[in-house]
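job 3f2a | input accepted
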Amino acid sequence: MFDSEHLEKMREGIQLFNEQKYWECHESLEDVWMEDRQDPVRNIYWAVIQVAAACIHYRDSNEIGAKGMITKAKEKFRRCREMHVVSPLAIDKLNWEELEQLTMSEDFEKLYNFRFTI
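job 3f2a | predicted structure (118 res):
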């Protein structure tokens, strides 16, 4: 779950995402995502990592790579809903529903310009 170390890593990853440092965001969140493979909350990290990767491909004009990563991210958003791991923290502080909507619509321009509130 979200302990203090996880929250700090998430804040760091979100800050990097907001600065459009998508690779660094990916790197920041990857260790926490890999840490506990049994914790369903890891799907929140995984979704953000895959959206960040899609943004890297979009920035590099790699449409196939962007669409491939966004397809994977969509699955993580579905898992988060099915497993009920989307907390009020994610909804309120991460604009989770907006991020999910942009991901599902594959609006890469808006997704690339999306910023988390924290």
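job 3f2a | The helical segments are 4-18, 22-35, 42-59, 63-82, 88-94, 96-105, 108-112.
job 3f2a | closed
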